[in-house]
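Exercise: predict the fold of this chain.
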Amino acid sequence: MTEQGPDVDDGSGHDQPSHPTPAPWAPPVEWTPTPTRPPTSAPTPARPPVPPPPAAPGWVPDDGLPPLPQHPPPLPHHDPQHPPAMPGGWQPGPPLPVPTDELGYPLFGPGSLPSIGRRAVARLIDLALVFLVYFAAAVPLIHIRDGVVDMSGVPTWYPLLTLAIDTVYESIAVTLFATTIGKRLLGLRVEGPDGTGPGWQRSTVRILFPNMVGAVPSIGGLLEPLVFLTAMWNPLRQGLHDRLAGTLVTSTR
């Protein structure tokens, strides 16, 4: 606060205030903050350490190497007669027996006796192949004149060529493969007495006998099918040609 001087009379009858006297200068006082103490509180309890996750199989912690591949254990040997134990204590029973006929042959599937219908269809397929070869050989002897087929160039014995082709074809196929094309398509197989292939002697007798019957003049074409149809009255479904040769026809599927 400054002090004012005495009033001065300037002759106008009014007192004039004198100039204020300035206070002496003093340096400013530097402000220093008062230090404060942090509020006191209860110490925070330390958290328990978190355990590390369990190590994966084949991995070693802190070794710096990638995980090792894990190989599955080898599978046990599969034995159809002794299957492995199932969980829960359940054990599979033995396989069901295949139903058989009164002679011991399966009623269906491999080893069963095929029906006469299947054997007839297989025979017709083989005969179609034989006639195809026969006509291919007879074409050069057939001529067409004025729209009429002239077969005068075909010898009278030429139809017997079909029997020869059939005998050679069937005997070779059954000897080598125990079946023919027609039988293979129908799932049939020719067996000998021991269950294996019949061999060339039985294969030849089996087809030669019906073809010789078919070569009988006039009635051979009627007698030959009867040789195959006699299998209908045989328990093993053997025709006369099978019984003569000692062969049996079974299914492969």
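Check your answer against the key: The longest strand covers residues 188-191.
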